[in-house]
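lol ok so funny story. i was supposed to be doing the assay writeup but got distracted and ended up predicting the structure for this chain instead. priorities right. anyway since i did it might as well share w the group, maybe its usefull for someone
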Amino acid sequence: MTAENKPDNPEVKSTELSRHQDVVRSLLEEDQLVAFKQRTRFGRRKFSPGLKVLLWALRIYVVVMLIIVVIQIVRTLR
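and the output, tada:
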Protein backbone atom coordinates (compact mmCIF):
# COMPACT_ATOMS: atom_id res chain seq x y z
CA MET A 1 0.00 0.00 0.00
CA THR A 2 1.37 3.43 -0.89
CA ALA A 3 1.26 6.46 1.38
CA GLU A 4 -1.49 7.97 -0.81
CA ASN A 5 -3.84 5.01 -0.32
CA LYS A 6 -3.37 4.47 3.41
CA PRO A 7 -6.54 5.18 5.37
CA ASP A 8 -4.56 7.18 7.95
CA ASN A 9 -3.38 9.68 5.35
CA PRO A 10 -5.10 13.01 6.24
CA GLU A 11 -5.03 14.21 2.63
CA VAL A 12 -7.05 11.20 1.50
CA LYS A 13 -9.54 11.69 4.33
CA SER A 14 -10.07 15.38 3.55
CA THR A 15 -10.46 14.69 -0.18
CA GLU A 16 -13.00 11.94 0.44
CA LEU A 17 -14.82 14.10 2.97
CA SER A 18 -15.08 17.02 0.56
CA ARG A 19 -16.43 14.69 -2.14
CA HIS A 20 -19.03 13.35 0.28
CA GLN A 21 -20.04 16.87 1.31
CA ASP A 22 -20.46 17.86 -2.35
CA VAL A 23 -22.74 14.85 -2.94
CA VAL A 24 -24.76 15.62 0.19
CA ARG A 25 -25.17 19.27 -0.81
CA SER A 26 -26.38 18.34 -4.27
CA LEU A 27 -29.08 16.07 -2.81
CA LEU A 28 -30.46 18.48 -0.21
CA GLU A 29 -33.59 20.53 -0.69
CA GLU A 30 -33.44 24.31 -0.31
CA ASP A 31 -34.41 24.49 3.37
CA GLN A 32 -32.14 21.57 4.20
CA LEU A 33 -29.29 23.29 2.36
CA VAL A 34 -29.78 26.45 4.42
CA ALA A 35 -29.65 24.40 7.64
CA PHE A 36 -26.53 22.58 6.41
CA LYS A 37 -24.76 25.85 5.60
CA GLN A 38 -25.62 27.29 9.02
CA ARG A 39 -24.05 24.28 10.73
CA THR A 40 -20.86 24.49 8.66
CA ARG A 41 -20.22 28.21 9.12
CA PHE A 42 -16.91 29.32 10.46
CA GLY A 43 -16.66 31.00 13.84
CA ARG A 44 -15.39 34.47 14.47
CA ARG A 45 -11.90 35.16 13.24
CA LYS A 46 -9.24 36.00 15.83
CA PHE A 47 -7.77 39.43 15.11
CA SER A 48 -4.31 40.51 16.14
CA PRO A 49 -4.08 43.41 18.62
CA GLY A 50 -2.79 45.74 15.90
CA LEU A 51 -5.73 44.96 13.65
CA LYS A 52 -8.18 45.52 16.51
CA VAL A 53 -6.65 48.97 17.13
CA LEU A 54 -6.88 49.79 13.43
CA LEU A 55 -10.55 48.77 13.25
CA TRP A 56 -11.43 50.85 16.33
CA ALA A 57 -9.52 53.82 14.87
CA LEU A 58 -11.55 53.53 11.66
CA ARG A 59 -14.81 53.38 13.62
CA ILE A 60 -13.87 56.50 15.57
CA TYR A 61 -12.84 58.24 12.33
CA VAL A 62 -16.22 57.50 10.74
CA VAL A 63 -18.13 58.82 13.77
CA VAL A 64 -16.03 62.00 13.87
CA MET A 65 -16.55 62.57 10.13
CA LEU A 66 -20.31 62.09 10.53
CA ILE A 67 -20.35 64.71 13.29
CA ILE A 68 -18.37 67.14 11.12
CA VAL A 69 -20.74 66.62 8.18
CA VAL A 70 -23.80 67.20 10.37
CA ILE A 71 -22.26 70.40 11.76
CA GLN A 72 -21.50 71.65 8.24
CA ILE A 73 -25.03 70.89 7.07
CA VAL A 74 -26.51 72.76 10.05
CA ARG A 75 -24.23 75.77 9.42
CA THR A 76 -25.15 75.82 5.73
CA LEU A 77 -28.86 75.79 6.46
CA ARG A 78 -28.65 78.88 8.73
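Residues 1-41 form one domain. The radius of gyration is 25 Å.
back to the writeup now i swear
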